[in-house]
Design a protein that fits this description.
The complex is a heterodimer. By secondary structure, chain A is mainly alpha-helical. In chain A, 84% of the residues lie in helices and 0% in strands. In chain A, 51% of the residues are buried. The mean pLDDT of chain A is 87. In chain B, a hairpin with a 1-residue loop joins β8 and β9. By secondary structure, chain B is of the alpha/beta class. In chain B, 41% of the residues are buried. Chain B is globular and about 50 Å long. The chains are: A mainly alpha, B alpha/beta.
């Protein structure tokens, strides 16, 4: 194993842990679809960055930030049917991204597998993962209350509007963390699939969130092992492992 | 009777865009009272409570003393049955946000007549009565001196409804609480309320149940004889 491989696997594991936790809350907030849209908005940014030879993650981050503000505004506006608007943004970002992204990089942008991670990239991934986990820990009480009843949260002096914004921000960071590994199309799956499997397997909040993070990390580890052994692409392998765990979790009958 | 004022409301108005939900609402309340807010559907009872809680934009004056601590029991929560959240989680969350000691959590669970076991059951799996008690426990955490309840028995059947009113009555005595509840059930209002405020976007009447709850006033409030909602099962 080269130093680069070690950087890759460590940053992937940390990103997976953060994504699993974010996914747990996203699943409870029922925002899986919104999450997918946010991740797709990264594609035009990735494309533009690749076109101009900038770090693709920076480009992705820039359009993601835009997307997050957009979704946040949409959530506040009740007059619009959110699903329709989300559908429009979703499709148009993929189309725009596909047009902008240089042909030879399109597969990576969509399905992950950008080449070598630098030392700076490694540090960035570790720090951002820790920030996401720490922020979720800090916000967890407010998130739990707002999940149960936004009204009751407001009465407990929680600014739910601001809280939603912070959560979208953490969601965006989790996506940036996963982009290198999984690409714009698949990155949402590492957030949602482990959470979905964890929900099948657990009954309490603590167990659910822990399981979600652990399943996400296991998906990355097994995905790494399998893809190295058989020489297949890492990102899709990780997602397939996660999907397999989800399929297995369905066998556990839930009361 | 205590005579210290705990709440003064003057010219309260709430508008949602073009729609006027409340206008020209004024009343005063003394410490320790049990105020029932009655009125037909859409008369603004919930909006009034939310204004008192300061969680919706409103105009006019709402004066609470500086040491007021409000406990709130909302009308109906569409609890997602699949949320892996239990009462214990909710109480811990509130304690965490408002910096309340964790040691206060178990006592409020007992106070409302629930058990530690029930506090660990997913909130979506509780019965209507247990759920309502859980909400009251949530409101009680942090030692409120005013309890605001919005139709506390809207989603449960009659014997349990009685239990909830009895519980609130007992809590009021025990903790010297001021209670403000929106209610549609005139028989419970007659039994427990010390003051009644009739609301139909603006105040229609205010006084003791004896003064207020005669047929004429109710006809005016609910529009025509026998139209007011008297819980039928």
């Amino acid at each position: 194993m080269s130093t680069n491989d070690i950087y890759s696997i460590i940053s992937a594991i940390m990103a997976a842990g953060a994504a699993g936790l974010v996914g747990g809350f996203a699943l409870m907030k029922r925002m899986a679809l919104a999450g997918d849209v946010i991740s797709h908005i990264a594609l035009p940014g990735l494309g533009l960055a690749l076109l101009y030879g900038i770090n693709p993650l920076l480009g992705g981050a820039a359009t993601l930030a835009l997307g997050i503000v957009l979704i946040w505004r949409l959530e506040k506006k009740t007059g619009l049917t959110t699903e329709v608007t989300i559908g429009v943004i979703f499709a148009s970002s993929v189309a725009l991204g596909a047009l902008i992204t240089p042909k030879e990089d399109l597969v990576e942008a969509l399905f992950g597998g950008f080449e070598n991670i630098t030392f700076e990239g490694f540090i960035f991934a570790v720090v951002v993962s820790l920030v996401v986990v720490y922020m979720l820990w800090r916000l967890k009480s407010k998130l739990i209350l707002a999940l149960f009843s936004p009204e009751l949260a407001e009465a407990t002096r929680v600014n739910t509007n601001l809280l939603n914004f912070y959560f979208l921000l953490l969601f965006g960071l989790a996506i940036i963390l996963g982009l290198r590994l999984l690409g714009a199309i698949l990155v949402g799956s590492l957030i949602i699939i482990p959470a979905a499997a964890a929900r099948q397997l657990t009954h309490t909040l603590g167990a659910f969130l822990t399981a979600s993070a652990v399943i996400s990390i296991l998906s990355v580890i097994f995905g790494f092992v399998i893809s190295t052994k058989y020489g297949i692409t890492l990102g899709p392998t990780v997602v397939c492992v996660a999907a397999l765990i989800f399929a297995l979790s369905l066998f556990k009958s839930k009361k | 009777m205590p005579s210290e004022k705990i709440l003064i409301v003057r010219n309260l108005a709430v508008k949602f865009g073009e729609y006027t939900a409340l206008e020209n609402v004024s009343f005063e309340l003394e410490k320790g009272e049990n105020l029932a807010v009655i009125g037909p559907n859409g008369s603004g009872k919930t909006v009034l409570l939310k204004s008192l809680l300061n969680i919706i934009p409103h105009e006019g004056e709402i004066d609470w003393p500086t040491d007021v601590r409000l406990g709130y029991v909302p009308q109906k929560i569409e609890a997602d049955r699949h949320l892996p959240i239990n009462l214990k989680n909710l109480l811990s969350a509130k304690a965490d946000i408002l910096k309340i000691k964790k040691s206060e959590i178990n006592p409020v669970i007992e106070t409302v007549g629930l058990t530690k076991e029930i506090s660990r059951v997913s909130i979506g799996h509780l019965s209507g009565g247990q759920f309502q008690k859980a909400l009251i426990a949530f409101a009680l955490l942090g030692r409120p001196n005013v309890l605001l309840l919005d139709e506390p028995t809207a989603s449960i059947d009659q014997p349990r409804e009685e239990q909830i009113y009895e519980l609130v009555h007992r809590l009021r005595d025990k903790y010297n609480l001021t209670v403000i509840s929106a209610s549609h059930d005139i028989s419970f209002v007659q039994r427990y309320a010390t003051k009644v405020f009739c609301l139909n976007k603006s105040g229609v009447c205010f006084g003791t149940p004896k003064e207020v709850l005669d047929t004429k006033v109710l006809e005016k409030l609910y529009g025509g004889p026998h139209k007011y909602y008297h819980h039928l099962h």
